[in-house]
Amino acid sequence: KDKLFKFKLWCDRIDFRIGTGAPSPSPSNQKSDAKPPKTPRNMGNPLQALNFAEFGRDRQGKPLAQPVLESAVNAEKDCSYLYEKLNQRTLDLAGGEKNTFKISFSWRMRVGGTRGFAELLLPALHPVFGIPYIPASSLKGAALAWAEKHHSNKGEIQELLGMLEGKNAKAAKIEFLDAFPTKPCLSVDVATPQWHWQNPEQKVIYNPEPHPLLTLEQPQFLIGFCPTGTQYADKVEVVKNWLENALKTGGIGSRVSGGYGRTVNQKTQLAHSKSFDFELWTQGMYGSNPPAKENNYQGNPEFRPTAIRGILRYWFRAVALGLYDAETCVTLEELLFGKLGQQGKISVSTRINPSQRQDPYLYTGKIILEATEAKYLSLIERCLILGSHLGGVGRGSRRPLHLLNRRMRGCHWFVDGDSLPLVGNDQQWRTFFKSVTDAFKAVQPSTKNYTSSPGQPGTKKRQQDVLDSNAQVWLLKDAVLLNPEKIKNWQNEGDSANVKGAALNLLYGDTRFKGVSGGSGNANVGGELGTPSFVWIKSIFTADSPYQVVTIFGSNHPDRLKLGTELKNQGAILVYGQMSSSSQPPPSNSPKPGPRRR
Q1: Which contiguous run of DSSP H or E holds residue 547?
Q2: Which of 149, 189, 236, 358 is 20 to 30 Å from the Cα of 545, by its Cα?
Q3: What is the residue-wise DSSP string for 98-119?
Q4: Is the peptide bond before 421 cis (omega within 30 degrees of 0)?
Q5: Global pTM?
Q6: What distance in Å separates the CA atoms of residue 412 and residue 72, rounded to the nearest whole number?
Q7: What's the average model confidence in pLDDT over 202-226?
Q8: CB 143 within 8 A of CB 242
Q9: Residue 430 near residue 588, CB atoms below 8 Å
Q10: How many CA atoms are closer than 13 Å to the CA of 341, on its beta-carbon side?
């Protein structure tokens, strides 16, 4: 043991350089006055944190992965020095800035990854440095896919990027380097699907399931290229353009169609597209850290493009389940929105201006819809207009924006476009509903109508709302309804009757209809904690006269039927559905009762 100890190599670093410009090693007896750069001590990394951090426990004693993910994020905050060194190394290997470019992403991104603990899919973490990165193979794959689609000279593609076909192989002339962020950007994210197809019953059940995960938040990457010989130096620009175009049109990583992995000012990729200006006044949109008692109700707000995609999916099901059987609905949903291993026919993205205020937050920007065919674009466009006229998006989507018990509730979502918003005219609304069903039937013909129950209050008992013959949509004019932009002081005015509107005042003012709170209310109408309301209320402001839209799902339930009666007594106009065969004939657009699902 003593002999082995005598020959132990005492050093904490072996530093070397490679490449044609690397200096020849100095003789061992040559002394140097240069001091090695200081390296931060105890510099951990996210990969180490994931290996050694402890799980948390919930109230039932089940393990929680989020504390482990948070420890990885905290470890990455101390990696600025490492990012600086790796970016400098990229510049050195690439031969300077001329063979590199920087690319920034507008929201979040996930690239690569491995199956981690507790079935979590972790992002790609460098096996040596333990930090997030984009592998060179992913970058090369993106550039190759774009070049094969847009570059006419196939021979040049194989020459520069290489090829392997059976026994035929050719080495690439331009090498891609692993790309590292320019600064720490690792963040805890969450995916919370709320509605789930349940087999074999083929019902859509409400059961929110939060899944924490790691993503990169608004990262910027330095991407470098290296020619294998000086004779190929002028070809770096060609390959660089291929990759830049690939990233600026198709993004990179997983869930690109839902808003992840999209570059700043990304161009549209699919053949058909349309954009809409929008405003969203909201109590706040949140990811992994929503307001809660544990954080003194101070969460981390962020606009989440996935919320737009989620609400479009909700309204897609609301229409589709009234036109098709469950099996056809599943097939059509997977065709449009995609599934694991299958890319969908549509894509949803946003361009957002940062919120300039809070309580409420105000987000403005554009919603960009893309589709592979015109009929798919028409369908998802109808879903967007439908959703923005019947409700909101994100927290409080079923109520107009207002103040309740000194806290912001509900939201106001305005989508601008030709002839939008719809005026409070029954004929225009009935024409619009017909255009919605026509758009669906252009994609998947239907000769039947189906009815579904929205379920009951309680865990896993609430089911998907459906615009079938048992749904009602009412228009209630309210001349004194206040637009959120006209409210100067929300704490003083936010709970006034003119802000809530006549429909919400009716709902809140009657224990037969309001949600369960403080021991009173009716869960079969207004819902309860853990059960979404069966009633949506939306405020709409037009040049003529403001009005509110009230949507009642499962209006054949006696408690909800009473709400419809009260709305009628207040002068509301029924534009979808029916009261009963004895009270009034159904509007011409209303679906006839069809096969019933339980």
Answers
A1: strand 547-552
A2: 358
A3: GGEEEEEBSSEE----EE-GGG
A4: yes
A5: 0.88
A6: 36
A7: 94
A8: yes
A9: yes
A10: 0
The DSSP letter of residue 515 is P
Q: What is the pLDDT of residue 122?
A: 80
Write down the pLDDT at residue 19: 44
pLDDT band at 597 (very low <50, low <70, confident <90, very high): low
**Is residue 585 pLDDT above 70, yes or no?**
no
Round to whole Å and give the CA distance between 591 and 250.
Answer: 40
CB atoms within 10 A of CB 322: 24
Q: What is the DSSP code string of 376-388?
A: HHHHHHHHHHHHH
What is the per-residue pLDDT for 153? Answer: 93
- Angstrom distance (rounded) from CA 217 to CA 527: 35
**Which residue type sits at 102?**
K
Contact 203, 249 (CB under 8 A): no
**Integer Cα distance of 121 and 119 in angstroms:** 6
Q: Which residues of 107-131 are buried (b: 16+ CB within 10 A; e: fewer)?
A: bbbbbbbeebeeebebbbbbeebbb
Phi–psi pair at 19, nearest 5 degrees: 105, 170
Considering only CA atoms, which of 195, 200, 208 is closest in space to residue 598?
Answer: 200
For residue 172 the two structure tokens come to 């690439």
* pLDDT higher than threshold 70 for residue 581: no
How far is it, in rounded angstroms, from Cα 412 to Cα 400?
6
pLDDT reported for residue 168: 84
CB 413 within 8 A of CB 388: yes
Residue 299 one-letter amino acid: G
Contact 490, 561 (CB under 8 A): no
Q: Which residues pair with 476 in a beta bridge?
A: 548
Query: How many Å apart are CA 164 and CA 168, to the nearest integer?
Result: 6
Query: Which residues, in sequence order, are bridge partners of residue 65?
Result: none
Q: How far is CA 371 from CA 129, 229, 277, 368, in A?
A: 40, 42, 18, 10
Tokens at 576, concatenated: 């979808």
pLDDT at 17 over 90: no
DSSP 244-288: HHHHHHH--SS-GGGTTTPBTTPPP-SSEEEEEEEEEEES--BSS
Q: How far apart are CA 477 and CA 267, in angstroms?
A: 41
Average pLDDT, whole number, for the chain?
Answer: 89
- Total count of residues recorded for the chain: 598
Give the pLDDT mean for 297-316.
94
pLDDT tens for 282-298 read 999 999 999 888 888 88
Q: What are the helix (H) ranges across 416-551?
A: 426-443, 490-493, 497-508
The Cα-based distances of 485 to 203, 355, 374, 414, 537 in angstroms read 40, 14, 35, 12, 19
